[in-house]
Specification:
metal-binding; 9-stranded mixed sheet; ATP-binding; alpha+beta; Rossmann fold; 14% strand; Calcium-transporting ATPase, cytoplasmic transduction domain A; Calcium-transporting ATPase, cytoplasmic domain N; disordered N terminus; 26 strands; disordered C terminus; single chain; membrane
Length: 1067
């Protein structure tokens, strides 16, 4: 276990250090520490109450609205109850109508169809089985909807348009996103800005009354305009972020569904489903609309999302009604769509609740803690400045620029005294605006929104914001093999039937007709895939990559899919399950013979076989020698990185088959099987995987392969991908799922960190591995695509589901969807996660430097001279650069290769590192030496020079902040167009302010020599920063250094911390 890791239970309970690295409230009292997933509501309430907030509507805009979440749940309950009440009422009404023979007015049917929208909706909503029978059952209903149960609807534009017009589209009205004016209104609600507006109005009135309208309007108007500019820029920035989140929400809801149209299975968007469509359902899918089951095998539906009861309901011809929004828990089948959009309960539910997916991330909450800490300091400084300035003003120690005293007792008019007091109050309030960094927590949202948008281009769709930043702390990635590390392009390259290797289709002639018939029957019937033969002779194979490979091999063996399927009828199906690692089907042939076919992991199927089929069709006993011979063949294939599958069958008497009613719970017999053959499929490694794995190793992230394949295949693939090298290919680094499963918790924790490959694993083994890794302090990312992977995806720190092969259940349990199923995209997510953290640190360093400098300059000047060199308008401009423009420039830096050359960031490491403290001290000194000028006199030229130099120092400091740890601060700057635009706008605006807006900002034009002085002083920050980076910093964090010097009263707490640290270093 690495030195930087600790047991998770110790971390969670004992290591809640303060966000600045200084434990100001004690280790157990930090409200700004929340878990990345499933944070308790009480913890969420606690940090909100602890935060210092000036504009709650803006600060908490992108956090979870706890009140709204409660309202959503109430609406869900109401709609569920409402649906049940409607169903019961309509059943009573129907019974009464039958008794009174009162059918009411007939519904006007849509042209071209034999049934209307209202009839379909009522029947489906009420689960009215008798109405379905009146329409002629599923077959009769399909005829009324002009649907062919085998080939589906035509699916051309005219047909789809006609159906959407007749029965409605599969959409529901969404609540419109907030307009720009709402964001503008929310930006206005900042309490400090409201005070400044009031001060500006009073200043305007008094200014005009005192100096006349020609000169008196400048002060009030300039403050009002500066406030307005801050509000507009803030609103524009927030509005753009909102649009990005809306776009991402739409992407998340756009589920792909498999439908049968014109005889072909195709993928369409859930929003393009129409009434009459035939939808193919398999385990893990979401039911896209209301409908009825056409056919199904072990079809089990989880209706908890609609009924609120966590109960799995079996669906068949007697219980055929399916509700939109439910999940397929097991089995597969097809359904006929009967109601879409608002005609479904799911549509009503989604239209009634808001689609806001706001959540607070741990980094966002920690930054609220930083903002609160800085804000308290800023408020204290503002209060000191206010008291000092008022005291100096009313005691006659404040002078005008001509040397005259501003306030003389009994001589200064009340109007002038109020005017002077307003100016002092304005400065104090403006210091609060600058001091309380409202933009700091929102910088996380900005960088996350930017990262999420860019990650879409890198084939990663973020479902949960916090996963974005947590990925930067990942220490282990547990990756699936098939489709993630490999191309998921399966092809059968070796096959053995009997004792004959089938190299080409011609070799089939060596097999007896009995063997060929059984083999092709097993391929055609025991599959969830399909073969479509077009009229022009072309063939299209659909299904999972494994099924496609097997069916394609069957076609090579001259299989006619439709003909083969028609020769026998399926009476029961046992779908493939990752626990039992095999699939089975029972079929009855025309001669009433019953065959049970089984295919799956070869060593498992082989262990169930008591005989094997020879090429002549004769069955021989499976002796130990023959079983070892087959095992040797399997091992030889596995060592060539081939995925092996075995085929077997057994005969069954028709009298041993249960009746149709009892068949639903029938377990297919899987003993006394006869082995037919074994195939080896090649799934090549992705060409880019080896480099991606190597990059992870350099970044301190361990890649662990979890696969259902056998040990030999897994080892061969791991060596090919670079997960293992020859020296690591030991028994300790490779383990089977059953072995790991047999360990107790302590043994699992001891071996989890050493494992590189887990073979023959079940989803439960993956879950146990994730728990063990988390327990020993790893931050775990897990990939998964199956329904059974959902618990592991849910348990992991970051769940990564697959966009192509992943089921909807897996996607809903995940935090990020990898759209191209590619491992290199997972590594790109790690880069972006680290980039989020690095960008926030850059922004913090920049903001703290400016913050501290601005506060100290005004405090020193106020105490020493009674005047402040930076007035309200100037401070508002500084605030604009520091908050909104600074965040835009620094929070949108793209990730660099340098990020992947350092170890993962600890999730509870202080946001302000020792390196940042060093940089902050150096840059702060460069800004603070401006205060020396204010001690002499505060002429307008001097104050203008100070203001100009201060702003230019910020610009140069912004460039410094791009690379807090690297010497070359200009690396990649030309590629960040937004950064260059922000810096250019800041410089241009500063020139305009100094040269043309002096009346408003209380500045004067500067000569070119003074401009040169400002630039030279600001430029000094670059060489200072360069030299400063050679100054070594202690590895011990500032918090620990302070604890060491803590008074004796805190000795026990410090001793405990020291003991923890010693224990940590010994691990």
């Amino acid at each position: 276990m690495a030195g930087g890791q600790r047991r998770r239970d110790e971390i969670d309970d004992d290591d809640c250090a303060d966000v600045l690295g200084i434990d100001v409230r004690g280790p157990d009292a930090d409200p700004f520490d929340i878990p990345a997933k499933r944070a308790p509501v009480e913890r969420l309430r606690r940090w909100r109450q602890a935060a210092l907030v000036l504009n709650a509507s803006r600060r908490f805009r992108y956090t979870l609205d706890l009140k709204k979440e409660e309202e959503k749940e109430q609406i869900r309950r109401k709609i569920r109850a409402h649906a049940q009440v409607i169903r019961a009422a309509l059943l009573f009404k129907e019974a009464g109508e039958k008794q009174n023979h009162d059918t009411g007015l007939p519904e006007i049917l849509p042209p071209g169809f034999g049934i209307g929208e209202q009839q379909l909706t009522v029947m489906t909503r009420d689960h009215n089985y008798s109405a379905l029978q009146e329409y002629g059952g599923v077959k009769g209903l399909a005829n009324l909807l002009k649907t062919n149960l085998e080939k589906g609807i035509h699916g051309d534009e005219a047909d789809l348009s006609c159906r959407a017009n007749a029965f409605g589209p599969n959409r529901y009205p969404r609540k419109k996103g907030r307009s720009f004016w709402v964001f503008l209104w929310e930006a206005c609600q900042d309490m400090t800005l409201v005070i400044l507006i009031i001060a500006a109005v009073i200043s305007l009135v008094l200014g005009i009354a005192t100096e006349g309208i020609k000169e008196g309007w400048y002060d009030g108007t300039s403050i009002a305009f500066a406030v307005f500019l801050v509000i507009v820029v803030t609103a524009v920035s927030d509005y753009k972020q909102s649009l990005q989140f809306q776009h991402l929400n739409e992407e998340k809801q756009n589920i792909q569904v498999e439908v049968i149209r014109g005889g072909r299975r195709i993928q369409v968007s859930i929003f393009d489903i129409v009434v009459g469509d035939i939808v193919a359902l398999k385990i893990g899918d979401q039911v896209p609309a209301d409908g009825v089951v056409i056919s199904g095998h072990s079809l089990a539906i989880d209706e908890s999302s609609m009924t609120g009861e966590s109960k799995i309901v079996m669906k068949d011809q007697k219980s055929p009604f399916l509700m939109a929004g439910c999940k397929v828990a097991d089995g597969f089948g097809t359904m006929l769509v009967t109601a879409v959009g608002l005609n479904t309960e799911w549509g009503l539910l989604m239209a009634s609740i808001s689609e806001d997916n706001n959540e607070e991330t741990p980094l966002q909450v920690r930054l609220n803690g930083v903002a609160t800490f800085i804000g308290i300091a800023g408020l204290s400084v503002a209060a000191i400045v206010l008291v000092v300035l008022f005291a100096r003003y009313f005691t006659g120690h404040t002078t005008n620029s001509d040397g005259s005293v501003q306030f003389v007792k009994r001589h200064t008019s009340v109007k002038s005294a109020i005017f002077g007091s307003i100016k002092i109050l304005t400065v104090a309030v403006t210091i609060v605006v600058v001091a309380v960094p409202e933009g700091l927590p929102l910088a996380v949202t900005l960088t996350l929104a930017y990262s999420m948008q860019k990650m879409m281009a890198d084939k990663a769709l973020v479902r949960r914001l916090s996963a974005c930043e947590t990925m930067g702390s990942a220490t282990t990635i547990c990756s699936d093999k098939t489709g993630t590390l490999t191309l998921n392009q399966m092809t059968v390259v070796q096959s053995i039937v009997g004792e004959v290797k089938l190299q080409t289709a011609g070799n089939v002639d060596k097999l007896s007709p009995t063997v060929v018939s059984l083999l092709l029957e097993g391929i055609a019937q025991n599959t969830s895939g399909s073969v479509f033969e077009a009229q022009d002779g072309s063939v299209e194979v659909t299904g999972s990559p494994t099924e496609k490979a097997i069916l394609s091999w069957g076609l090579d063996l001259r299989m006619k899919f439709a003909e083969e399927r028609s020769r026998s009828s399926i009476i029961h199906v046992s779908p493939f399950n990752s626990e039992k690692k095999r699939a089975g089907v029972a079929v009855v042939a025309r001669d009433s013979d019953v065959h049970v076919h089984c295919k799956g992991a070869p060593e498992i199927v082989l262990s169930l076989c008591t005989s094997w089929l020879d090429v002549d069709g004769s069955a021989h006993e499976m002796t130990p020698d023959k079983a070892n011979q087959f095992k040797k063949l399997i091992e030889d294939m596995a060592e060539q990185s081939l995925r092996c599958i075995a085929f077997a069958y057994r005969n069954l008497d028709l009298k041993d088959v249960p009746s149709e009613e009892q068949r639903i719970n029938w377990q297919l017999p899987d003993n006394e099987l006869t082995l037919i053959g074994i195939i080896g499929m090649k799934d090549p490694c992705r060409p880019e995987v080896r480099d991606a794995v190597e990059l992870c190793k350099k970044a301190g992230v361990k890649v662990l392969m979890v696969t259902g394949d056998n040990l030999k295949t897994a080892k061969a693939i791991a060596l090919e991908c670079g997960i293992l090298d020859d020296s690591e290919a030991s028994a300790q680094a490779i383990i089977e799922g059953r072995v790991f499963r047999a360990y107790d918790d302590t043994e699992r924790e001891n071996v989890a960190g050493k494992i590189s490959v887990m073979a023959r694993s079940s989803p439960n083994d993956k879950l146990l591995l994730v728990k063990a890794l988390k327990k020993i302090g790893h931050v775990v990312a897990v990939t998964g695509d199956g329904t059974n992977d959902a618990p592991a995806l849910h348990e992991a720190d970051i769940g990564l589901s697959m966009g192509i092969q992943g089921t909807e259940v897996a996607k809903e349990s995940s935090d990020i969807i990898i759209l191209d199923d590619n491992f290199s995209s997972v590594v790109k997510v790690v880069r972006w996660g680290r980039s989020v953290y690095a960008n926030i640190q850059k922004f913090i360093q920049f903001q703290l430097t400016v913050n501290v400098a601005a506060l100290v300059i005004n405090v020193v000047a106020a105490v020493s001279s009674g005047n402040v060199p930076l007035n309200a308008v100037q401070l508002l401009w500084v605030n604009l650069i520091m908050d909104t423009l600074g965040a835009l420039a620094l929070a949108t830096e793209p990730p660099t290769d340098q990020l992947m050359r350092r170890p993962p960031v600890g999730r509870r490491e202080p946001l302000v590192t020792n390196i940042m403290w060093r940089n902050l001290f150096i840059q702060g000194r460069d800004l603070l030496h401006l205060t020396h000028d204010t001690l002499d006199h505060s002429s307008k030229v001097k104050n203008t020079l100070i203001f100009n130099t201060f702003v230019l120092c910020q610009v140069f400091n912004e460039v410094n902040s791009r690379k807090p740890e690297e010497l070359n601060i200009f690396a990649g700057v030309s590629r960040n167009h937004l950064f260059l635009a922000v810096v250019s706008i800041t410089v241009v605006m500063q020139v305009i302010i100094i040269e043309f807006l002096g009346k408003f900002t209380s500045t004067v034009r500067l000569k070119w020599k003074l401009w040169l002085v400002s630039v030279v002083i600001a430029f000094l920050s670059w060489p200072l920063a360069f030299v400063g980076k050679f100054i070594p910093v202690p590895r011990t964090q500032l918090k620990d250094l302070i604890l060491r010097c803590w008074p004796k009263s805190g000795e026990s707490a410090a001793q405990q911390t020291q003991d923890d640290r010693i224990a940590l270093s010994q691990v």
